[in-house]
Specification:
heterodimer; A: mainly beta; 6-stranded mixed β-sheet; 5-stranded antiparallel β-sheet; B: mainly beta; 4-stranded antiparallel β-sheet
Chain lengths: 113, 114
């Protein structure tokens, strides 16, 4: 079975500050890991994915995440927050093929001016 | 290229009524799925399909039916709506062989059951 825990349902940062959104996973097989972003009243869109290649994954809009097997973590970071980053972020784990992803509960990111 | 199209965007039902949420994709994706999104619970998989004529249950299938007669369409049927089915529903699709689970999501359908 696979599961995801996102620490912190709400995170607030100032514009220009570091963004850190935490994700821990549980998986009995080597996982594929994803971060999706959801802007208000929209569907989810992919930020980045880890598929057992490089452990540091770069995504869109300056986000990146590092896969740490020893810590079963896949935290999302961005060096400098922008107002447009305000959204809800979901971490997900899944098998190599198919669409049976397991999502975390989500973290709402607020960016203060 | 429309991607994944869901209709309707909003729907209000009374308890016991039935309805169908429509989902269509024009990317020739093999895999399609339905998720529901509830506050504080993320997205939970309802049903999924790996190709025309093949469907299977996800984490929360009770009260929902699906069928996949074509590659493009994957409707979700609520047989007898209950207030617990008030939620936002998302349809998603992905390639089968390649794509490594990169889901393309529709814009969502917000359902309220009174």
């Amino acid at each position: 079975a696979q599961s995801v825990t996102q620490l912190g349902s709400h995170v607030s940062v100032s514009e220009g500050a570091l963004v850190l959104l935490r994700c821990n996973y549980s998986s009995s097989v080597p996982p594929y890991l994803f971060w999706y972003v959801q802007y208000p009243n929209q569907g989810l869109q992919l930020l980045l994915k880890y598929t057992s290649a490089a452990t540091l994954v770069k995504g869109i809009n300056g986000f990146e995440a590092e896969f740490k097997k020893s810590e079963t973590s896949f935290h999302l970071t961005k060096p400098s927050a922008h107002m447009s980053d305000a959204a809800e972020y979901f971490c997900a784990v899944g098998p190599p093929r198919g669409n049976k992803l397991v999502f975390g509960a989500g973290t709402i990111l607020r960016v203060k001016s | 290229n429309a991607g994944v199209t869901q209709t309707p965007k909003f729907q209000v039902l009374k308890t016991g009524q039935s309805m169908t949420l429509q989902c269509a994709q024009d990317m020739n994706h093999e895999y399609m799925s339905w998720y529901r999104q509830d506050p504080g619970m993320g997205l939970r998989l309802i049903h999924y399909s790996v190709g025309a004529g093949i469907t299977d249950q996800g984490e929360v299938p009770n009260g929902y039916n699906v069928s996949r007669s074509t590659t493009e369409d994957f409707p979700l049927r609520l047989l007898s709506a209950a207030p617990s089915q008030t939620s936002v529903y998302f349809c998603a699709s992905s390639h089968g062989v390649s794509g490594a689970n990169v889901l393309t999501f529709g814009a969502g359908s917000r359902l309220t059951v009174l």
